Sequence to fold (325 residues):
Amino acid sequence: MIQSATSAVRLPVPHMEVGSNSPDYLAATFKACEQLAKTHYENFSIGSRMLPKRLRKHFYSIYAFSRSVDDLGDEAEGDRMTLLDLWERELEHCYPIANSNTPSHPYFVALAETIQTFDIPSEPFKRLIEANRRDQSIIRHNTFDDVLEYCTYSANPVGHLVLFLSGIRDPKLHELANKTCTGLQLANFWQDVSVDIELDRIYIPIEDLERFGVSEAQITNRKHDKNFESLMKFEVARARQMFIEGYSLANSLGNEIKFDFALFVHGGLEILKSIERQNYDVVTSRPTISKLGKARIFASTWFRSKLGINLVAKSAFKSQSRHTA
Fold:
């Protein structure tokens, strides 16, 4: 455990088969990152087999950082702000020019290797930490612009990190990635309404609740009606538009990363369709993608790649809803 110098707050550390003095320790830290990725449910594959092996472990190290900081902000017992401070301190140790220390947490030992290999700046990582700091006090968002601003901390940095792994630093392409990452975050918000209620968080903008005649009490009481259906149809359409606007990024990606990008997009779109299939009722049950559904997405993407056609079919971007707002 990594402990705060001023308190008994400790960071959770994964079990390691070898000690830090072992010549196999670095490889073991990447393996721990991979293990974390494979034991969490996600809407889209992380580091698929189509990703070159030389990149796969680095996808896992970034995932381990991102997943763990979310878990600290959402689920950790005790002083979450102190835990997030400790997490940021470990991050700073990954940048030896700015800090003479070296990371001790296994995930950060792997991440330091990723950072140095691809010359990744610290800002995207720090923004992800800041998103979780905000989650400790900001549990409502007045406007959709407020939600989009939050996404610049909670989601968009992940796209930047993935592009850095592919050597892409063009600001215009990073802006396109922002569209896709925001789409993924919105899809996740709408998917997790019933889960976020338990944390007393509602990411649906208050201005939209008022526009469609839905109260916070209705959401916390898990009451689905026509007003809520219309509200979620509106929010789902917003998320889908983000995917539509961001997908042109695929045209600028190399084959080594384009496949996984398509999986991310298709997974997010499939969640939106899952919401539609259950008549937008996300207050009583959480829509998910089954293992079979994920397999179908992978197979479809692989087949289209072999045919040399668009990896995400145009039909995937279309609504399946038969309901009118």
The two ends are 52 Å apart (CA to CA). The CA atoms of residues 261 and 317 lie 15 Å apart. The longest helix spans residues 255-277.
